[in-house]
Fold these 3 entries.
Entry 1:
Amino acid sequence: MKKKTIDNPKPSFIQAINVANQWCTEWEDNLLSDEVLADRIAELTQSQNGARGFFAYALSDIDCTLLDRLPTSLIFKLREQGKPIVEIVVKNLIMSSAQILHHQRLNNKNNQFLSRNISDRCINLLKVLETKLVAQIIKKSLKNLDKMGNSLDNSTRYDNDQKKFIREVINKIAY
């Protein structure tokens, strides 16, 4: 078993993905307790790249069940971190929801399933985070939806059907 803490308090995006993979695998193999994993994730997600890398891995890897099982200790640590965590989960919900429709249009069932899984994980996580904060960030994101898009630089905006679908998915949170 490798070291369970991070050497760099500000890891790169790729380093964060790799360490999240390592820790979640060890957790799945019962080599890490829920509490130890939650502490490590809290440490990793202190930086923007750490949070992005953790969620990129934990949301998208179909074999990682951490966000499906949501241990109480993890929920507590993520709630403690507040706004940055809620913001990144809301962004992932919006992107993955738009991708569901995109893959449906291309008749790409596998990628549609993967995007739906990410969207579902985001919804379930947002339901257990701080309600007022989730509602505030969702409201702000919906207000800015016309400025958001499918590309990293938002140069390709979401079309009207995607925006409608994003709103429908967000309504599943019942904030």
Note: The two ends are 41 Å apart (CA to CA).
Entry 2:
Amino acid sequence: MTKKPKLGHDPFKEEPLSFIRDTRADRPGKAGNIGNIENTKTRPGHGKQRGRPKGSGAKDRDKWKRATFIVRRDHLEKLKAMAYWERLTATEVLDRALETYLKRKTIKPIRSK
């Protein structure tokens, strides 16, 4: 009785990942993947630094200042709910609330150092 020949090959007798080959040279007209730089589009402002934007984003930026405050959770939830139901932003609701509160107050200016 003769053994049937194997149809495949033994992967353990070859070097690891020897089945992967570089196909960049197979493309007609281009040697490798070097010539693809002309396909990329240059975006305006591409060289600008990314990250968090500076400023408030308001149209009249000289009137607004970005600030961070810690508030109670229940007040924050009410503020967000009011903004949702009034179809406003949380900034607009907070601005209206502060405006109403500060309207009734007489405030002495702080001495500058």
Note: The chain has a mean pLDDT of 77.
Entry 3:
Amino acid sequence: MPENYKEVQSAVNELLKVSSTVKRRVKTESEKKLDFFVSVMNMLEDIEARSMIAQFDFDIDLSKYDEKYMDIIDTLLYISYGKECYNLISFYRFERINHADGSINPIIIEATGEEVFLENPYDLYNMMRRINSNIE
């Protein structure tokens, strides 16, 4: 058992005056895939932010350097999730934020007229699950 589990166990034991056991729940394959997806989306946002900072603060254009890597990632996202989900990912990355005022643009579900706001990668992944039933 890692050291931090022992600390949690000791704190619980002392607080509740009991003898406890702390176990880590093993993540399902579906949860692991979600974690990987969220991590990728967050890294993509970090890369884009780094590029913008370099451009505006230091007048360094990283777009040509990053372009091939981003193309590879885009291709893998397309292959992994399909055209509809890829289009949703592209919306999330490039059109979700209204650059005029910083607000979040919604996705409109054509069949129902429902507006859906994708505020984070978890919202995006859940919407992708609605689109593609093969995504766990």
Note: Strands lie at 107-108, 115-116.
